[in-house]
Design brief:
Oligomer: single chain
CATH superfamily of the largest domain: NAD(P)-binding Rossmann-like Domain
Radius of gyration: 26 Å
CATH topology of the largest domain: Rossmann fold
Structural class: alpha/beta
Order of helices and strands: HEEEHEHEEEHEEHEHHEHEEEEHH
Number of strands: 15
Number of domains: 3
CATH architecture of the largest domain: 3-Layer(aba) Sandwich
Strand order of the largest sheet: 3-2-1-6-4-5
Shape: elongated
Largest sheet: 6 strands, mixed
Strand content: 15-25%
Length: 318
C-alpha cells in the first residue's frame, strides 16, 4: 500500500526525515521520458525497504517495476539506471551497465529512471559523560554518524535498537548496570572502555547474576586500536577507528536471536505484456480455469479475456 502522495521538493524533505530516523530507502528520479508516459522529467519518489512509495514516478506500468528494483538496490547497496519500455523504443544503442525492463504499457510511453539507495548511517550510543565520551561523540558526528550521549544512570535498553552501536564509557561508574542494559537490547555491537582485567571482572559479575553467556560473549573489551599509553582524545580516535574498520567490513550488522519471519510482497507476471505486477486486487485479477491471473491495466486484461489461449503456454492450454 502506498503512502500519501508527496510532490516536488517535499520528496527531498521526506528523504531528510527518513535519513534522520535512520531508515533505509531509495530515491528514484525520472531522468528521461518519451511521451505519453505519465512520469515527468524530474519526477521523484522514495521507496522504503518495505516497498512503501512516497511521491510520483509514473503510472501502473512503471511503479511496480521501480519499487521492485529500488528494494533490490537497498539490499545490494548499488545504484542503477533503469530503461523502462520495449527494446524497440531504444534501438540498439543501450549503454553497458543499464538495466532494461521491457514493459508493454498501453500508453506506449517509456522512461529512464535513476535509482539511488540511501543507507542509514551508524547510530552510535555512547554511555558516559567523560571527556573521552564527549570527544568520541564529536568525532562520530564529523563522520556523518548519528551519536547519542547518555548518562550511565539514565541509560536503558530502550535507548537502542538492533542496529545500534553501543560504547559503554562509564569508566567504573556503573559499568555492570550499563552493560546489562546494553546486551539485553541485543544491538549490533557492544563495547566496554576498560582494561581486559576489569572487563572480565564485570562480565563475570553479570554471569553470576544470570545474564545469558551468549549475550556476554558479544561484548568487546577492551575496545579501540591498541595505541599504548594515550590521552583521552587519542583513545576516542582509537575507538572510532576500530568502529569505522568494522563498519567498512560489514560487521556492524543487526544481531537477531532467531530469524525474523517475513512475508514477501506477492507478485505475478501479466500474461499479456510480461510485466511484473502486484498479485492483489489492484491488478485486475481474472480467473481462468481455476488459475488467477493479474494485469497491468484494463487493456491487457481485455485482450486476455477475449483470447486467453493466445497468451498461455502450451502446457497451460491443455
Amino acid at each position: 500500500m502506498n503512502a500519501p502522495a508527496v510532490d516536488g521538493w517535499a520528496v527531498i524533505e521526506q528523504a531528510r526525515e527518513l535519513a534522520q530516523r535512520g531508515e533505509e530507502f531509495a530515491l528514484a528520479t525520472v531522468v528521461w521520458r518519451q511521451g505519453p508516459s505519465s512520469g515527468q522529467l524530474g519526477s521523484r519518489a522514495i521507496v522504503t525497504a518495505s516497498g512503501q512509495l512516497y511521491g510520483w514516478i509514473g503510472g501502473a506500468c512503471a511503479e511496480p517495476v521501480v519499487i521492485r528494483e529500488a528494494q533490490q538496490a537497498i539490499v545490494d547497496g548499488e545504484s542503477r539506471l533503469l530503461l523502462l519500455g520495449t527494446p524497440e523504443q531504444f534501438g540498439g544503442a543501450i549503454p553497458e551497465g543499464m538495466t532494461v525492463v521491457p514493459i508493454s504499457c498501453q500508453s506506449e510511453g517509456a522512461m529512464q529512471v535513476y535509482v539511488e539507495p540511501v543507507l542509514s548511517s551508524p547510530h552510535l550510543v555512547i554511555v558516559g559523560r567523560s571527556p573521552m565520551a564527549q570527544t568520541l561523540s564529536e568525532l562520530a558526528r564529523v563522520l556523518g554518524w548519528r551519536p547519542d550521549l547518555v548518562d550511565g544512570q539514565d541509560f536503558s535498553a530502550a535507548d537502542v535498537d538492533e542496529r545500534a552501536v553501543v560504547v559503554v564509557a562509564t569508566q567504573g561508574h556503573g559499568d555492570e548496570e550499563a552493560l546489562e542494559q546494553a546486551v539485553t537490547a541485543m544491538p549490533a555491537y557492544v563495547g566496554l572502555v576498560a582494561s581486559r582485567r576489569r572487563g572480565e571482572a564485570g562480565l563475570g559479575y553479570l554471569a553470576e547474576r544470570g545474564v545469558e553467556q551468549s549475550l556476554l560473549d558479544r561484548v568487546r573489551v577492551p575496545i579501540g586500536l591498541d595505541l599504548g599509553h594515550t590521552s583521552h582524545r587519542e583513545i576516542a580516535v582509537a575507538i572510532l577507528a576500530e568502529l569505522v574498520q568494522l563498519h567498512a567490513a560489514g560487521l556492524l550488522v543487526p544481531h537477531v536471536r532467531e530469524p525474523a519471519a517475513t512475508t514477501p510482497l506477492a507478485q505475478a507476471i501479466d500474461p499479456v505484456c510480461a510485466m511484473t505486477v502486484p498479485a492483489d486486487r489492484t491488478s485486475r485479477p481474472f480467473e481462468q480455469e481455476g488459475v488467477t491471473y493479474y494485469f497491468c491495466g484494463v487493456g491487457c486484461r481485455a485482450a486476455f479475456e477475449k483470447t486467453p489461449a493466445a497468451y498461455l503456454p502450451k502446457e497451460a492450454r491443455c
